[in-house]
């Protein structure tokens, strides 16, 4: 594979260039760990609020509302985290370092992949923090090793899909408010799904939307994996949504990136 930056060709250096830029982004996060903490605060606050304030009034299958609620909170954690991905990319673009990278002998795709992999690492840390709080609140799982790996795989696919989606406003936004605001609909979407309450009690139009949007199938699949329950066809719907969104977001992000370079 040959990638050209300026007039200097790069042959087979995408991996090493991406690693260098990944380390750069991770160093920025390590110098400002409050980014990850802030990302986890909102989902943890929701977890505490819904379990200890509303949990006794919500009827769900199973004995523990925290077990029912956690999968949706994990998706909200990812949606909160990718806003910082868009912001970090926007900062590079607006500060001029983005153009500086393009003039250096590095693979062009490495610039984006450095941000994408940083987002994946940061979000996995935030998800681990939320999981620890859930365990302290009484969350228990009957899942085996394969089920836990299945949960991890779905969360990784979901994170990558939203991260590539975040690349688009990161490259095109003209203000901090614009780059941060795109994540709000993503955070709101789980509220119209099976993440907080079963869909059976919703009005028909709302129920139809809740049952046919991606969050419900992903949440239900993760919930069944945690509970050690049969997955049925829901797992294929969830994987279809994750992979489909990932491919679409990647294609749109790369198209936006090429236009930005042009």
TrEMBL record:
Instruction: Supply the PANTHER family for this chain.
Output: NODULATION PROTEIN J (PTHR43229)
The family note in this entry says:
Belongs to the ABC-2 integral membrane protein family.
What is the recorded membrane topology of this protein? Multi-pass membrane protein
Provide the gene name from the record: lieB
**InterPro entries, from UniProt?**
ABC2_TM, ABC2_TM_bact-type, ABC_2_transport, Nod_factor_ABC_transporter
Q: Residues in domain ABC transmembrane type-2?
A: 34-260
Q: What is this protein called?
A: Transport permease protein
- State its location(s): Cell membrane; Membrane
Q: Where are the bilayer-spanning segments?
A: 36-56, 68-90, 111-139, 145-167, 179-197, 235-253
Q: What organism does the UniProt record list as the source?
A: Terrabacter ginsenosidimutans
Q: Which domain of life is it from?
A: Bacteria
Q: Which UniProt keywords apply?
A: Antibiotic resistance, Cell membrane, Membrane, Transmembrane, Transmembrane helix, Transport
